[in-house]
């Protein structure tokens, strides 16, 4: 990987984290308060599903906004216990890299850096919503990015994949 510096030397690859912030967050418990009683009375295990996505927007001047979307849905049978959604964002200065290296940084490194912040936000919302604590397991964004690249190469003549 290229040498990463933050001291502004011309011609040197640079990767600078400028800001991390929550772009959007929401929590819904559409079947409360009845769902709390159902969770205590039934032996059925809640089913939890995580939907993950990310996008990068070129802001110009080697600045990029990367948004990691985490949507956690917990269901008990056919009913939704809760839905927690966080769009964790960051602004990154990325300059002096090849297009391929820059795309790898945006597709793997940046989401990897944002994930712990988004995971903490989801966990806090679930607990403050009155539900048992839930901690998302670590995610291998390097493997996800590599798989996305592999699928794009295989489907070069097909429709592009949405991430």
Automatic annotation (TrEMBL):
Belongs to the SecB family. This is Protein-export protein SecB. GO terms for biological process: protein folding; protein tetramerization; protein transport. The keyword Protein transport applies. It comes from Luteibacter yeojuensis. It is found in: Cytoplasm. Keywords: Chaperone, Cytoplasm, Protein transport, Translocation, Transport. One of the proteins required for the normal export of preproteins out of the cell cytoplasm. It is a molecular chaperone that binds to a subset of precursor proteins, maintaining them in a translocation-competent state. It also specifically binds to its receptor SecA. SUPFAM superfamilies: SecB-like (SSF54611). GO terms for cellular component: cytoplasm. The keyword Phosphoprotein does not apply.
């Amino acid at each position: 990987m290229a040498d990463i510096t933050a001291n502004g030397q011309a011609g040197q690859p640079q990767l600078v984290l400028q800001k991390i912030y929550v772009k959007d967050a929401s929590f819904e418990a559409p079947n409360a308060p009845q769902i709390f009683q159902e969770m205590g009375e039934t032996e059925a295990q809640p089913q939890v599903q995580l939907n993950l996505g990310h996008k990068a927007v070129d802001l110009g001047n080697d600045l990029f906004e990367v948004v990691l979307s985490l949507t956690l849905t917990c269901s008990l049978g056919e009913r939704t216990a809760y839905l927690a959604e966080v769009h964790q964002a960051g602004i990154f200065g990325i300059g002096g890299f090849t297009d391929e290296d820059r795309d790898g940084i945006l597709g793997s490194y940046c989401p990897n850096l944002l994930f712990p912040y988004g995971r903490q936000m989801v966990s806090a919302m679930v607990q403050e919503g009155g539900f048992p604590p839930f901690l998302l397991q670590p995610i291998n964004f390097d493997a996800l990015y590599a798989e996305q690249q592999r699928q794009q190469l295989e489907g070069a003549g097909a429709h592009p994949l949405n991430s």
